[in-house]
Amino acid sequence: MRLQKFMADAGVASRRKCEELINEGRVSVNGETALIGAQVDPEKDEVLLDGKEIAAKAARVVIAFNKPRGVFCTVNDPEGRRTVMDYFKDLPYRLYHVGRLDCDSEGLLFMTNDGDLAYKLMHPKFQIEKTYYVVTDGILTNNEAQALETGVLLEDGMTAPARLKPAVQKQEGTTAFFITIHEGRNRQVRRMLEAVGHRTFLLRRVSVGNVQLEGMKTGSWRFLSAEEVKNLEAVLSGTDN
Q1: Any catalytic annotation for residue 114?
Q2: CB atoms near residue 128 (< 10 Å)
Q3: Fewer CB near the terminus (10 Å): N or C of the chain?
Q4: Is the separation of the CB atoms in 3 and 39 below 8 Å?
Q5: Active-site residue identified among 9, 45, 90, 102
Q6: Tens-digit pLDDT profile for residues 132-152
């Protein structure tokens, strides 16, 4: 098994982050500084990160978390602001968040110790769909909606086509709708709306793949059932099971 996969499976971090740790020289195998792509036998080899042993794969944990607005997606915040990790201090797992929701956004965020699942959920090639409830200023015209559905040009390139579904108007002078995308660029939905001339007042992620936010209070979380995880993996693998 490749070292970075072993580390990700053990819940250290995502595969990409594990590669960074290896490149930084912080990982050793049987007393020798490790290199990217090194092969390890979980039953025989001693793997250390910063001098501490990495245990073989623990029980997989996948959590659905309703992130509140004002909470940061980071493990540590140097300014002491509230982070997603503050909600899971009492759990006996080494968790990390899957992707990000910016501080001003809220809604569904996965927390897990499964690096491989996290990698697939974040990588654009797997095209996992994410749906957001959005409230913007002004009236979103048909032409603007069509532009979002076709793709708009951002500073980091053209976006893939999105799907829009109207929602009940929140108040006069704003537009409420659902938007579904499968990319994961930084602040993507907000930037897409800026590209067609609108500010975002509210952005809430309501689903990722087959997992729904519905029924979860802000700041609450729950373990995904085995069936939900199985269905999520089926979506990632392109099956309908």
Answers
A1: no
A2: 20
A3: C
A4: yes
A5: 102
A6: 999 999 999 999 999 999 999
